[in-house]
Design a protein that fits this description.
29% of the residues lie in helices and 33% in strands. The chain is an alpha/beta fold. The protein folds into two domains: 132 residues, 3-Layer(aba) Sandwich (Rossmann fold), CATH 3.40.50.2300; 101 residues, OB fold (Dihydrolipoamide Acetyltransferase, E2P) (Beta Barrel). The chain has a five-stranded parallel β-sheet with strand order 2-1-3-4-5, sandwiched between helices. A five-stranded antiparallel β-sheet has the order 10-9-8-12-11, with no helix packed on it. β13 and β14 form a beta hairpin. α2 packs parallel to α3. The longest helix has 14 residues. The radius of gyration is 20 Å and the shape is elongated. The two termini are 33 Å apart.
């Protein structure tokens, strides 16, 4: 019996690598035969490799994940990969469609793997109803691209990608970059709703970190986690409530 095959379609290289590593542990028999960094590439590889399973990021540049899913309908099993969105999850669950959330939750990914593993050799689930609901519910979400902060008597314009982390500071929010820090005149909770959850992870009640700024995560003898940043000397504690983000480490 041949090994089942998979195609991973995800535009972020680090997330592709992370998903591939998780799959190697959770489903050793699965062979990842190709990876796509955009929708057009995913459609081409679907025809060339004919995988049994497609792990598909919904939001990719160019041709969207929903359009790729339309091409995959009936040809292979589809597991959607998405940042948390209540409308998307509702569509998936109502249609019995498999999905995993970013940042990756190993328990949820394991469930999706077990479900699709049982379906190998059977006809793929009809995903058209879920796709129609997703298309109807989806409105482009625009996240912050830059922020204006205060530093003494001077205002600074900071590109959101340059932020290492945000930290609550008595009604204000500290905005910390590789070059320094300044204050934003709004609370962390208000800011959180405007940040892309796939990039900015809440790791503590008072701290949101840019995932791209993380260099490593250390665990002490008591199992407590601490984040080390690429361009800052300080280390950030991870609270127990948010430790699931790093379960694979």
């Amino acid at each position: 019996m041949r090994s089942p095959t998979a195609l991973i379609a995800e535009d972020e290289p680090a997330l592709r690598a992370e998903l591939r590593a998780h799959l190697a542990r959770l489903w050793p028999e699965l062979r990842v035969v190709a990876e796509a960094a955009n929708g057009l590439e995913a459609i081409r590889l679907l025809g060339e490799r004919v995988p049994d399973v497609l792990f598909l990021d919904i939001e990719m540049p160019g041709v969207t994940g929903l359009e790729v899913a339309g091409h995959a309908q009936g040809r292979c099993h589809v597991v959607f990969v998405t940042a948390y969105d209540e409308h998307a999850v509702a569509a998936f669950e109502q249609g019995a469609v498999d999905y995993v959330l970013k940042p990756f939750d190993v328990a949820r990914l394991s469930l999706a793997v077990r479900r699709v593993e049982q379906r190998i050799g059977k006809s793929p689930v009809d995903i058209m109803a879920a796709l129609k609901q997703l298309a109807a519910d989806s409105t482009p979400r625009r996240y912050l691209r830059w922020i204006c902060t205060s530093d003494r008597d001077e205002s600074q314009l900071i590109t959101i990608d340059d932020v290492c982390y945000f930290q609550s500071d008595t009604g204000y929010t500290r905005v910390v970059t590789a070059q320094g820090e300044s204050l934003l005149r709004s609370p962390l909770k208000e800011l959180q709703d405007q940040l892309d959850p796939a990039v900015f992870w809440q790791v503590h009640r008072s701290t949101i970190v840019n995932a791209n700024a993380i260099a490593a995560v250390a665990r002490d003898l008591r199992g407590r986690l601490t984040i080390r940043l690429k361009d800052r000397d300080e280390q950030l504690p991870v609270s127990e409530a948010h430790a699931h983000l790093f379960r694979q480490m």
